[in-house]
Amino acid sequence: MNILFISMSLELGCKDLYCDLIDSLLKRNHKITVVRSLPNITNTTFQQQESGLSVLDVKTGDPFSQNLFKKGLNQIMIGTYLKRAIKEYLLKENFDLILYATPPVTLAGVVKFCKEKYHAKTFLMLKDIFPQNAVDLGMMSKTGIIYKYFRNQEKKYYKYSDYIGCMSQANLEYVLKHNPEVKKEKIHIFPNSIEIDFTGKTIFNEDKTVFMFGGNLGKPQNISFLIDLSRRLKGYSKAEFIIVGGGTEQGKIIEYVTNEKPANLKFNRRLPQEEYEKLLQTADVGLISLDPRFTIPNVPSRMQSYMKLKKPILAITDIATDIKGMILDNDCGWWCDARNLSDAEKIIKTICENKENQKKKGLNGFEFLKREFDVELNADKIEDFYCNRNERKN
Asked: Where does the Glycosyl transferase family domain start and stop, copy by copy (predicted)?
């Protein structure tokens, strides 16, 4: 296949679900052209690289700006910039498959253009249900014009997609329930996946339990809950927290660390991938935290990064997500309702009192990862989709 991969931002060469998928497809001798937005470059550039990979870097506004107005405006405009660049640099190319993800939902126009121009199949990796997530967090009203604009874009995304890949069963059921016009036969389970390449030794601290949270620090991550948890456990020496990342809510952590100087919580800003994984190896338990107001089923990709390093998971989430079932059914961690701080404190103390249980659940998570979240399984799904569509076409 000749694949066009459209991305709001993609750091090639790193180890994440998109780069791992690209690497897997390249190893299968598919050609891939990545079109990505980069706000910090001077000019749009096109570069052909080795091993069947080409990259079109498009200068855009910053879609991750901490200023919410600028962030929204840049996400609205990003499709215009990408479409213009594709017309200028890739108009004479031929593509068999268009691969893209949410966020954002504002690339519907680009997808439609590419679908019609190249007569290609379209494959959506649904990682975010927007704008409903913003409504859940009180950032947007369903009666407002902004919501209506983004909701219309979301529906167009589904309309132009031949394959909609959802992260979980609850995710899939939510999309069908709230978008009855979407045909059931084009929506499938396509979970977050990674290359399983960890061969190192799993480290566990014997005298304490280190809980680590890594990734985006925004409103969805319920950062205030983690801070309150640290406060409640400040006299409990067996639990320690490490938070790594950046985002709109990082100021709350910086203020807490600066003013209260908690002995049980350490904060690091975003780290390079290699440094982050080294730090994660020193932790005992991976943390997932989601705002309890969510009505959409989120499945954070950090879950797979924890399991890859054989770390058990403590998920403190809303009740809409099916993470609870994944973790408890596969005995790879613990779950707590994000509305109950007292329960979270009790669960953490229970975790800290049994190191062998931590190790057992970490190994169970690694086996779960191999069964369900190996990137090769998702590469198979992409190939099967393309082959089956062509067979029906012929």
From this structure: 201-362
Nearest residue to 191 via CA among 170, 172, 161, 168: 168
pLDDT of 64 > 60? The answer is no
pLDDT at 44 over 90: no
Q: Which residues face 46 on adjacent strands?
A: 56
Q: Is 163 helix (H, G, I), strand (E, B) or coil?
A: strand
**Strand, helix or coil for residue 45:** strand
Residue that has been written with the tokens 């809409």 in this structure? 320
- pTM comes to 0.90
Topology of domain 2-194+374-393 in CATH is Rossmann fold (3.40.50)
Superfamily of domain 209-372: Glycogen Phosphorylase B; (3.40.50.2000)
CATH 3.40.50.2000 boundaries in the chain: 2-194+374-393, 209-372
**Distance of alpha carbon 269 from alpha carbon 245, whole angstroms:** 5
Q: Please tell me the predicted confidence (pLDDT) of residue 264.
A: 97
- Spatial separation of the C-alpha atoms in residues 18 and 11, rounded to whole Å: 9
